[in-house]
Amino acid sequence: MTIHGTYETVDCEGVEVRYADHLDGGGSDFGRAYVPFVASRFGKVPRLLEWCCGPAFIGFSLLGAGLCEKLELSDVNEEAVLAARETVAANGLDDRVSVFHSDCFDNVPADRKWDLIVGNPPHMNVTTAPAEDIETFRRIKPELVYADKDWKIHERFYDQVGARLAPGGSVLLQECRAASDPEVFRPMIAASGLEIAGVFPCEPPHDLFYFLWVRAAA
Known about the structure:
10 strands, alpha/beta
């Protein structure tokens, strides 16, 4: 890790990613489980989006590993968007990466569709989570990073994402098994004409987390 101006920098598969610690929701750590999983299950895809990207450790890692041709990034937090754009500029990636400041897909052009959408969204339903767990996160991270009250962020995402998938496209979100069961998301996924294609535990040392693979219903 090095420091450039107001940002810390970490190497993600050859891309020097700019970030600040309070923007990191775990993508620099357990997010690294994406590269071997995507390589083995999907291979290289033409267009990839990282939703809820933060500094975009995941998206930049997949790009650096040669697992996508074009990368697009989206986050509701303007500070995270600025950090991601700094990474794009510092690495000369303007021709391959676009960054959107957007609440879900609100500010993303309607014609954008992706072969694979990945993300490390807020993992905790703060309405039902134990108070001690909420307090632990509150002490170290801003609420934007961890809190999804009544799963409304997930619900809105799944309601909109079907129209954003290219033919044969998939969604692959990383969730925390200590905070959710995949069955929590099944009704909202089914209501949107999508289906769960599989649930896969991340490999150790990241086995507190799992991948939820979603695609259009057959």
